[in-house]
TrEMBL record:
Residues 452-571 form the LisH domain. This is LisH domain-containing protein ARMC9. Residues 57-188 form the ARMC9 CTLH-like domain. GO terms for biological process: cilium assembly. Interacts with TOGARAM1, CCDC66, CEP104, CSPP1 and CEP290. Interacts with NDUFAF2. It holds the Pfam family ARMC9_ARM. Keywords: Cell projection, Cilium biogenesis/degradation, Cytoplasm, Cytoskeleton. It comes from Pongo abelii. It is found in: Cytoplasm, Cytoskeleton, Cilium basal body; Cytoplasm, Cytoskeleton, Microtubule organizing center, Centrosome, Centriole. Involved in ciliogenesis. It is required for appropriate acetylation and polyglutamylation of ciliary microtubules, and regulation of cilium length. Acts as a positive regulator of hedgehog (Hh)signaling. May participate in the trafficking and/or retention of GLI2 and GLI3 proteins at the ciliary tip.
């Protein structure tokens, strides 16, 4: 009780301050009256009136600087007292700041008596130009502001029709009114009562602590699952070893009695001790009739355990999965796409990954065989940036595996949708990277190469590669690799011949690029297209041989060898047009159809589970277990 009485005055003051801030006028009068009747002193909250006085002073100084055209004073106060979260995150604040910069830029033109001072005017215009090139660049795509980006370059803005509105008498007073209203709102919000601040800080602290604990729980559960798998594996090996030991003891007793042990029996014992990876070769390549063979293999089996054998993952209810992928919330769709991709990318190469992929394909997870208007593939055109990106990542993961490419290639609509997404996607770099990665892997298959060439993808690639420094390493490498693959076909070479000058210019610029990973692809594309007589002629005219010889001086041995081959191709005799078509008649058997699962598929994840949400394998095995798998005990649910 003593503690309460000691702080009672301050607590009552906090209540009074909040009632005053929230404009509970009648309640405040009653509260103050009752405090007075009971003899309770009302302490003024520390800093309350001081903050009000200071806020009014700052607002007055800002408006004065606005009226006087004092640009530096205004923006120093603006950046010091307007929170950056408001300046950078509030669209009204951004637009107001843009117009304020215009106000100061043209201030001398509007209000100078006589001719404005040129040096001072140039300084204000330069300040505005710097703003346009830095922070103001964010609004350059907005129609409302686009004309004003030309303002610093117009000799006399006062007579230019695009800026007529700025020099009307009503423009500055209207802008001043918007500024005053904005400042009043901002400083009222910043003078929040101490009671609210205490509540907010404690709530935020608790929220952050809960999120941190949740993340720790997710990580602990992940480690727990890993250790459980290892324990189960070791336990299975232990039981197996006990069984084999018992058999060997029986066999030893039998030999004492004069019975023979056959090589086939020894082989069966050893096979049971070794990992799956060794069993096939063991059955065919090891001669157990040679003395010492069995003991050598058994000693090897006692080496430190390498946990290469992993169990198959539980089957899933794909009908329910696909239904939620089509009809669920965007957040649920994103978590499901992420979990399905992780199941593929984190599975162990070999039987486990093959089983996962075959389950996806046999259940037509992506609806490649479906003709329904609403299908999982349509997620590639979702309005949600996250869903689009995660769908592109999943398709790229499929395309990383030969069987996955074969599945996706069954329906040309997949290719058409990817090409459309590639050309339309301008918001999300990672979405475009994954679409491009999938297309590059598609280009390992001849029918898909043909379709991409016919769809004019070469022209798009050449246009993108004109400015390689604006591209991410992934986009650059996969764009050049895809271009090379398409240029290996005669139809692709003929397509390049239509824009030979541009293609040669782009490829010659890429020869000297700092990203050395692209060099083999650039060299391959050049060598290929130079088999076309018209392209060779164009290359000679632009001095391609001299360009190539510059790189011989500074390249490594392999680079020099490749460039020498290109120069030889450049100076070769012309071939009849018929020879160019021969490569299209070859079989597809010689294509390089490898499995390559990249680490980039899981980089920079956009979503993280909140408290109570499931993700990854736990989401799949909790909500979407297939028939025959026990589901008792699963009670958590994903919050949509």
């Amino acid at each position: 009780m003593g503690d309460i009485l000691a702080h009672e005055s301050e607590l009552l003051g906090l209540v009074k301050e909040y009632l005053d801030f929230a404009e509970f006028e009648d309640t405040l009068k009653t509260f103050s009256k009752e405090c007075k009747l009971k003899g309770k002193p009302l302490c003024k909250t520390v800093g309350g009136s001081f903050r009000d006085s200071k806020s009014l002073t700052i607002q007055k100084d800002l408006v004065t600087a606005f009226d006087n055209g004092d640009q530096k004073v205004f923006f120093n106060l603006w950046e010091e007292h307007i929170p950056s979260s408001v300046r950078d995150g509030d669209s009204f604040a951004q637009k107001l700041e843009f117009y304020l910069h215009i106000h100061f830029a043209i201030y001398l033109l509007k209000y100078s008596v006589g001719r404005p001072d040129k040096e001072e005017l140039d300084e204000k215009i330069s300040y505005f130009k710097t703003y346009l090139e830095t922070k103001g660049a964010a609004l350059s795509q907005t129609t409302e502001f686009l004309p004003f980006y030309a303002l610093p370059f117009v000799p006399n803005p006062m007579v230019h029709p695009s800026f007529k509105e700025l020099f009307q008498d009503s423009w500055t007073p209207e802008l001043k009114m918007k500024l005053e209203k904005f400042l009043a709102l901002i400083f009222k919000a910043s003078n929040t009562p101490k009671l609210f601040t205490i509540y907010k800080e404690n709530g935020q602290s608790n929220k952050e602590m809960l999120q941190q604990l949740h993340q720790q729980l997710v990580e602990a559960e992940r480690r727990s699952m890993t250790y459980l798998k290892r324990y189960n594996k070791i336990q299975a090996d232990y039981h197996n070893l006990i069984g084999v030991t018992a058999e060997l003891v029986d066999s030893l007793e039998a030999t004492v009695s004069g019975k023979m042990i056959t090589p086939e029996y020894l082989q069966s014992v050893c096979v049971r001790l070794f990992s799956n990876q060794m069993r096939q070769s063991l059955a065919h390549s090891v001669d157990f009739t040679r003395p010492g063979t069995a003991s050598t293999m058994l000693r090897a089996s006692l080496a430190p355990v390498k946990l290469k054998d992993v169990p198959l993952l539980p089957s899933l209810d794909y009908e329910k999965l696909k239904k939620d992928l089509i009809l669920g919330s965007d957040r649920l769709k994103a978590f499901l796409l992420q979990a399905l991709r992780w199941r593929l990318t984190t599975s162990h190469p070999g039987e486990q990954r093959e089983t996962v992929l075959q389950a996806y394909i046999s259940n037509d997870l992506l609806d490649c065989y479906s003709h329904n208007q609403r299908s999982v593939l349509q997620l590639l055109h979702s309005k949600s940036d996250v869903v689009r990106q995660y769908m592109a990542r999943l398709i790229n993961a499929f395309a990383s595996l030969a069987e996955g490419r074969l599945y996706l290639a069954q329906n040309t609509k997949v290719l058409r949708m990817l090409e459309g997404r590639l050309k339309e996607e301008d918001k999300d770099i990672i979405t475009r990277e994954n679409v491009l990665g999938a297309l590059q892997k598609f280009s390992l298959r001849r029918p898909l190469q043909t379709a991409m060439i016919q769809d004019g993808l070469i022209f798009w690639l050449v246009d993108v590669l004109k400015d390689p420094d604006c591209l991410s390493d992934y986009t650059l490498e996969y764009s050049v690799a895809l271009l090379m693959n398409l240029c290996l076909r005669s139809t692709g070479k003929n397509m390049c011949a239509k824009v030979a000058g541009l293609v040669l210019k782009v490829l010659s610029d890429l020869l000297g690029h700092e990203n050395h990973e692209i060099q083999p692809y650039v060299n391959g594309a050049l060598y290929s297209i130079l088999s076309v007589p018209s392209i060779r002629e164009e290359a000679r005219a632009m001095g391609m041989e001299d360009i190539l010889r510059c790189f011989i001086k500074e390249g490594n041995a392999e680079m020099i060898r490749q460039i020498e081959f290109i120069i030889k191709q450049l100076n070769s005799e012309e071939l009849p047009d018929g020879v160019l078509e021969s490569d299209d008649d070859e079989d597809e058997d010689d294509e390089e159809d490898h499995d390559i699962m990249e680490a980039d598929l899981d980089k920079d994840e956009l979503i993280q589970p909140q408290l109570g949400e499931l993700s990854g394998e736990k989401l799949l095995t909790t909500e979407y277990l297939g028939v025959g798998v026990g589901e008792e005990g699963w009670s958590q649910r994903l919050n949509n």
